Amino acid sequence: MSVEPAVSETMSVPGPDGPLEGEVVVVPDAKIGVIIIPGSGPTDRDGNSPAGMRTDTYRLLAEGLAEAGVSSLRIDKRGFFGSSNAVADPEAVTIAGYADDVRAWRDAFAEKLGTECVFVAGHSEGGLVALAAAAGGMPACGLVLLSSPGRPIGALMREQFRSNPANGPYLDELDSLVDRLERGEMTDIENISPVLRALFREGLQRYMIQLFAYDPAELARSVTLPTLVVQGDRDLQIAPEDARLLSENLPNGEVAILEGMTHMLKDDVRGSPMATYQDPDLPLTEGVVDKMAEFMARACETWVR
Fold it and tell me: How far apart are the first and last CA of the chain?
């Protein structure tokens, strides 16, 4: 008996000023669907960025989930790529706005699949978006938080700045800039060292002010949906501590720490810390897809009851 193959197609929903676009992989007769939310900045639906990041992580995740019998939807965030016409300025966005978009995607995706068992999986900053959407009352079967922050982003930025020796001469200035943003204050670009201006340009400062106001662990306390937190122990951006903070504060959370996995959900390449950010041919860490599929099947069965 032949098995009908999964079908990939473009999908869109209305955005603030124009359409939001994504790519859906429909597995025939699948009872479960998952929406994959990208991480920060100009990261596309496949997990790549014009800034030099080439991972295909989200595409590989969708393909693996399809083999496990799970349909998926990978989205372009408002203002970027296929969703570029959704807002005039891609830097004039907020976590709350992204969460509104996810709720719209969830409703449209559930209708397309003909199932209410839809999960939301957020990667990195996308995990914070998933938490915000769920805290706002999004009806979902559950969440998957992939390499997602458990502490305020300002605290994580300070930690990341200190881990890079090249930032040594600028650490005091970086601390001051983050302090001001946490207080809701912007810094005139002319008063910032030229080497730091791209990171703290005006539009990004506006975005970071609202971003820094979120405490993921505090937000997690209000999310009662079944939630799987997946984290690697070789992640240079998010630590296992963050995963434990999230799981401890989620009323219905569980955590999986995967040995050797980096921020991009791929095995660390010893001696080449940036390889998983730049080589789309590297496979996902073994166990990522299986843990997601097993969790979603279990949560969906409980939810249907």
Answer: 31
Classify 264 as helix, strand or coil.
coil
Q: Which residues contact 294 (CB under 8 A, 6 or more apart)?
A: none
- Round the CA-based radius of gyration of the chain to a whole number and report it: 19
186, 209, 232 - which closes a domain: 209
Cβ atoms < 10 Å from Cβ of 176: 12
Digit-coded pLDDT (tens) for 143-157: 999 999 999 999 999
By the 8 A CB rule, do 112 and 30 touch?
no
At 146, which helix (H) or strand (E)? strand 142-146
Helix (H) or strand (E) holding 171: helix 171-182
Give residue 184's domain range. 155-209
Domain count, the chain: 2
Of all helices (H) and strands (E), which one includes residue 25? strand 19-26
Global confidence as pTM: 0.96
